[in-house]
Design goal:
Number of helices: 7
Oligomer: single chain
Number of strands: 0
Radius of gyration: 16 Å
Structural class: mainly alpha
């Protein structure tokens, strides 16, 4: 069995309840986005000066996402491609939110992060099982891949 299959299977063991799954379809992408936005909020200093302020990709989140991509590629290149596309979308939305000047990006991201985690823990309360990442921290990265693999199955893309 491939490592990705084993990880997805193990992750799925604590995500069988329909309500918990639905909550995960909302909260996992929101948590992923909020982490990207929080990291993108960290001043990038010289990087920003070189690229200018109108660049959604010149920030620390891009560097962290490149490292996460290496991990995803080691598990599944097709899933990595899908997750990179989602990550690029997250960077673009974060850039858009930062330009709205309603709330600082970090504050909006923090609100989303807290609310999404409340949802996640509520889902696991319904499920009756602890979140997978409490057993193994790498499951924080497997959650988005778990959702992506369902999308791939639906549109018949091998992962």
């Amino acid at each position: 069995m491939r490592k990705i299959d084993a990880l997805l299977s193990e992750y799925g063991e604590s995500h069988k309840n329909a309500t918990n799954k639905t909550i995960h379809w909302v909260c996992v992408p929101l948590i992923f986005f909020s982490i990207v936005a929080l990291i993108a909020s960290i001043p990038a200093g010289p990087l920003e000066k070189m690229a200018g302020e109108n660049d959604a990709f010149t920030n620390w989140a891009t560097i962290v996402l490149l490292l996460a991509t290496v991990y995803y590629v080691s598990l599944s290149i097709p899933l990595a491609i899908g997750l990179v596309l989602f990550a690029v979308g997250c960077l673009q939305v974060a850039f858009f939110i930062s330009r709205l000047n309603i709330l600082p990006l970090w504050q909006a991201a923090l609100i989303i992060f807290v609310l999404a985690w409340i949802g996640q823990f509520y889902g696991h309360k319904i499920e009756g099982k602890k979140p997978s990442f409490l057993k193994d921290i790498q499951f924080l990265l497997i959650g988005p891949a778990w959702l992506m693999h369902f999308i791939y199955k639906k549109i018949r893309i091998p992962y």
